[in-house]
Amino acid sequence: MKTYATVARRVVRILEHPNSGWSPADPDDDNALEIEFRFEVTDDGRKNFLLVYQSLDGRYAADSWHETVQEALACAEQAFGITQSEWAAV
């Protein structure tokens, strides 16, 4: 798979959900953990794209499917606050 953009290291606030995973935390949530993540926008092996994110310690990971690179970048901004300027083109 080809990688189109990366954010090599970014602190993300998350909430752990016992027995069901994790999710991004609201900025004012006092129960949030601050974890470093790596983000990538890759192709899905066809003609669409994935936003792939994994904590640097390997404990947390997920991805989401998108029709365009721009949709993947917009999802990262909405869910994690990652701005267009933070992405490095590959």
Spans of at least 5 consecutive residues with low confidence: none
Helix content: 10-25%
Number of strands: 6
Can you count the helices?
1
Into which percentage range does the β-strand content fall? over 45%
N to C succession of SSEs:
EEEEEHE
Question: Which secondary-structure class do the elements indicate?
Answer: mainly beta
N-to-C span: 13 Å
**Overall pLDDT confidence:** 94
- Biggest sheet architecture: 6 strands, antiparallel
Rounded to the nearest angstrom, the radius of gyration is 13 Å
Q: Which of globular, elongated, flat, extended, rod-shaped describes the shape?
A: globular
Q: How many structural domains does the protein architecture include?
A: 1
Task: Summarize the structure in short.
With 90 residues, the chain is mostly beta strands.
Structure description:
This protein has 90 residues and is mostly beta strands. It has one domain (3-89). Helices cover 13% and strands 50% of the residues. Strands 1, 2, 3, 4, 5 and 6 form a six-stranded antiparallel beta sheet that branches. Strand 1 (3-17) and strand 2 (21-24) form a beta hairpin. It is globular, with a radius of gyration of 13 Å. The relative contact order is 0.26. The mean pLDDT is 94.
Task: From the structure above, extract its key features.
90 residues, mainly beta, 6 strands, six-stranded antiparallel sheet, globular
